[in-house]
Design a protein that fits this description.
Enzyme I, Chain A, domain 2, Beta-Lactamase, 28 helices, single chain, 22 strands, alpha/beta, Glucose Oxidase, domain 1, 5 domains, about 15% strand, binds magnesium ion, binds phosphoenolpyruvate
């Protein structure tokens, strides 16, 4: 902090700069560093919050700039600090998660009025040093025994602030943060911030005097990291399937790599300080990898750093941030990404709250499919959520309550129970057919993307898997997965579901599912860029490998092959050629596959819907992806919460394109399903069925409530409703048509779905 006060004093041309830090009671501040005040005052001058100008800045959490400080009513004189010579004072609070953890103040001998730009600059300095201050307080703990240190640091990592707080200073109870409801369900649990506030790089390590001890400590930290990784990989692999385990293999490989181990040994022999030696090795690796141009290989450098940080965490006695969640944790993050599901202990997550992102981002889709309540676009959650403190998340309303009191907890615990009972009732009715009152059968299938999803498909009574997304395997691998690994997964899935169908979609990477594959570069506009089938067609080797894996799986069950994001006929033709060539290849090798495997396409860009007649003649089925179709029709980024209010699959423009696709499919006599999130929306279901859609594929948990909706409806009425909907000008008007139908058909009184439907309809206003 000595450096900081020197720098700030110089930058602001002040005669003194001082840092005061909040004491453990959070009621007082003590002078901790100064350039300009009497050095003897450091550690001695202490002010209460609200006392003196520094105390006022801390209490109000606002900066102040005062030309004639002594004339200010709050001025307090500290003779021991030697500040008599100063006339003006400017102070800015150092705030971390809405709590003043200190104050930085500058003083000048000559009276000076501070400009707003200077106040802003001091505030920026305060913001920048907030994490350093926190770490400085952490460092004060690096005393006593290693065990104590480990325990305290671990607590800190989960408490958010280094000091315990008096009850009187606790923030308000039941603080509400609102976001976008993205996955239903209620959770009550401790907050876990995905972006760990502990910065390992900043922690100080006290080496022992014994070089041999440093060596053995470092090697033990390395061994412990390997053991940890093996354990986590096995557990994750068992619970979620091999695709999830794969991500840990990379890290294990690095820590077992003889070159890496040798570098570590050599470094600690030259520098008998375990931490410095490890940092040296990591820095050398980083330098080498940073000089590589190809982003794919450059990213491999991140793996090494990540694995190294794990070793560092062991050495410092803190837990590495990932995969160690407490049961029912409320994960708070900047945005939820698909690869989080490949690295976190998914079954321990109670709920997720993301500061950014929309309800149909891929991260949100995976959360829904895993039945994890989710609220996205929760502005302010990152600054307000305090790790370790409890929160309530209501994924249906998008409400999050921080520091809930007993009353609110009780209320939500009851809501949680009610929800569980409804789900159980609905699941118990799973064997009833999904038929409208007049006997029209609607095929209800589930969307899946993990081995782990399949029991959910069973539990919720889906008739198969209408969309199996294959991206998670690639995300876990951070690149194209191996052919044999894909084959194993697809075969297992096909076998598990047989004779029920599974539609396996080829890789739909890019957009918000970016992975470092060779040739991949950051794009200005990834949703319109090198994405999905475009990427597959220009990586023919990888694409052929995936096609062979899917074809082989077709010998083990009822498999259909689906091509994503087709925009043009030539794309479809080229992809089909590659399918045919892959068949010939397998035939030559004498390998079994279903020669008649249906090959379909996603209708998810407007151009595909507009040329649906032409496309229908050259493929075997359509699957309408309303998530992207909505995004591209309305020009609304599906992952951007700022435009989320504009994102609506029931916009009549989107309905017109669905209608066009349904008619084209009917004329060509090919099946059509809707597999976007819209298929699980109870207001969309009557309209889709009315348009003639006969298959809906939704998140597994959406299948039972949707079945109840279908069973209450009469198909003749729905056709009229759909025609009326197509003539409307807004999504709201379309929803009112659907809401009227649900009300008319008695669904709002339904014992299990009525409450949910009423809340949706109430929200329409
Ligand atoms: C869609 O776009 O609707 C779809 C099902 O595909 P994804 O959500 O994976 O982009
Ligand atoms: Mg899509």
């Amino acid at each position: 902090m000595g450096n900081v006060v020197d720098l700030v004093a110089q930058r602001l041309q002040a005669d003194a700069c001082s840092i005061y830090l909040t004491d453990a009671d959070l009621q007082h501040l003590t002078l901790r560093a100064s350039n300009g005040l009497d050095p003897g005052a450091v550690g001695q001058v202490r002010v209460a919050f609200g006392e003196g100008l520094v105390g006022v800045a801390a209490q109000s959490a606002e900066p102040i700039g005062i030309e004639h400080a002594r004339e200010h009513p709050a001025f307090r004189h500290f003779p021991e600090s030697g500040e008599d010579r100063f006339a003006s004072l400017m102070a800015a609070p150092i705030v971390l998660r809405n709590i003043s953890i200190g104050v930085i103040a500058v003083q000048t001998e000559k009276p000076r009025s501070f400009q707003p730009s200077e106040v802003a600059l001091l505030q920026t300095c305060a913001r920048l040093i907030a994490p350093v201050v926190m770490n400085a307080q952490l460092l004060a703990l690096v005393t006593s025994t290693a065990d104590e240190r480990a325990q305290v640091l671990d607590e800190l990592a989960h408490s958010g602030l280094p000091m315990s707080m008096g009850e009187a200073d606790r923030p308000a109870r039941n603080v509400e943060v609102r976001g976008i409801p993205a996955a239903r369900g209620v959770a009550i649990g401790p907050i876990y911030r995905l972006e760990d506030p502990l910065d390992l790089e900043q922690l100080v390590y006290r080496p022992s005097d014994d070089p041999e001890r440093e060596r053995s400590d470092l090697l033990e930290a390395l061994a412990e990291a390997r053991r940890d990784l093996h354990e986590v990989r096995d557990q994750v692999g068992e619970r979620f399937g091999p695709e999830f385990a794969a991500v840990f293999n990379t890290h294990i490989q690095i820590l077992e790599d003889s070159g890496f181990v040798q570098s570590v040994e050599q470094a600690v022999a030259e520098t008998p300080n375990a931490l410095s030696a490890l940092r040296k090795v990591l820095a050398a690796y980083r330098k080498t990898f940073e000089s590589i141009e190809d982003p794919y290989f450059r990213e491999r450098g991140d793996d090494i750093q990540d694995a190294g940080l794990r070793v560092m965490a062991n050495l410092l006695g803190v837990r590495h941030h990932n995969v160690r969640l407490s049961e029912g944790a409320i994960v708070v993050t900047d945005s939820i990404l698909p690869n989080h599901f490949a690295t976190l202990e998914v079954d321990k997550i109670g709920a997720i709250v993301a500061e950014h992102g929309g309800a149909t981002s891929h991260g949100a889709i995976f959360a829904r499919s895993l039945e994890i309540p989710l609220v996205t676009g929760a502005a302010g959650i990152l600054t307000q959520a305090r790790p370790g403190e409890d929160a309530i998340v209501d994924g249906a309303s998008g409400r999050v309550y921080l520091a809930p009191d007993e009353g609110l907890r009780g209320e939500y615990a009851r809501a949680q129970q009610r929800h569980a009972i409804e789900v159980e009732h609905l699941d118990a009715l799973g064997s009833r057919p999904a038929e409208t009152r007049d006997g029209r059968h609607i095929v209800l299938t589930a969307n899946a993307g993990l081995w782990h999803d399949l029991p959910l498909v069973d539990r919720h009574g889906a008739e198969g898997v209408g969309l199996f997304r294959t991206e998670l395997l690639a995300l876990a691998h951070r690149g194209f997965p191996e052919e044999n690994e894909q084959e194993r997964l697809y075969e297992q899935v096909a076998e598990y579901l047989a004779p029920r169908p599974v539609t396996i979609r080829t890789l739909d990477l890019g957009g918000d599912k970016s992975v470092p594959i060779p040739g991949f570069a950051r794009e200005e506009n990834p949703q319109l860029g090198w994405r999905s089938i475009r990427m597959s067609l220009s990586n023919e080797r990888a694409f052929r490998a995936q096609l062979r894996a899917i074809l082989r799986a077709s010998a083990h069950g009822n498999v259909r092959l689906l091509l994503p994001m087709i925009c043009t006929l030539p794309e479809l033709r080229r992809a089909r050629e590659l399918v045919e060539e892959s068949k010939v290849e397998l035939e030559k090798r004498g390998e079994a596959f279903d020669a008649k495997i249906p090959v379909g396409i996603m209708i998810e860009v407007p151009s595909a819907a507009l040329i649906a007649d032409a496309l229908a003649h050259e493929c075997d089925f359509f699957s309408v992806g309303t998530n992207d179709l909505t995004q591209y029709t309305l020009a609304v980024d599906r992952g951007n919460e700022r435009v989320d209010h504009l994102y609506d699959s029931l916009h009549p423009g989107v309905l017109a394109l669905i209608d066009r696709s349904v008619r084209a499919a009917r004329r060509a006599d090919i099946p059509l399903s809707v597999c976007g999130e819209m298929a699980g929306d109870p207001l969309a279901v009557p309209i889709l069925v009315g348009l003639g859609v006969t298959e809906l594929s939704a998140a597994p948990s959406a299948v039972p409530p949707i079945k109840e909706v279908v069973r209450a409806l009469e198909s003749g009425d729905l056709e009229d409703d759909a025609r009326r909907a197509l003539e409307k000008g807004t999504a709201l008007e379309v929803k009112r048509v659907a809401a009227e139908r649900l009300r008319h058909d008695g669904l709002l009184q339904h014992p299990d779905v009525g409450r949910w439907l009423r809340s949706i309809i109430d929200d329409l206003g």
